[in-house]
Backbone:
């Protein structure tokens, strides 16, 4: 049985990574800084999920996280930047909670 804390921590990490990654890039104007933040949270998410349920699910969550990042860009053209990031963060959080 999965530790219930993982079901909270995994979606919290993915959400924080997407929001703070975008926020850091926007606030500083340095897109690479946003990428570093995104990568750090993605790595932490992989470790947390991998310890709880193994590398296959951890890879699926991390892949979803990265796909959400990529998908937020075209979605931003329709919704706007912050609404797009919020939407993909919510979707990724659901996947992370379900996988963990």
Residues:
């Amino acid at each position: 049985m999965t530790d219930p804390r993982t079901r909270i921590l995994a979606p919290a990490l993915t959400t924080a990574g997407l929001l703070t990654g975008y926020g850091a890039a926007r606030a500083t104007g340095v897109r690479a800084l946003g990428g570093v933040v995104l990568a750090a949270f993605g790595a932490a998410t992989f470790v947390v999920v991998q310890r709880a349920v193994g590398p296959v699910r951890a890879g699926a969550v991390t892949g979803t996280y990265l796909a959400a990042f990529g998908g937020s860009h075209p979605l931003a053209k329709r919704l706007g930047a912050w609404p797009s990031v919020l939407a993909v963060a919510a979707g990724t959080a659901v996947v992370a909670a379900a996988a963990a």
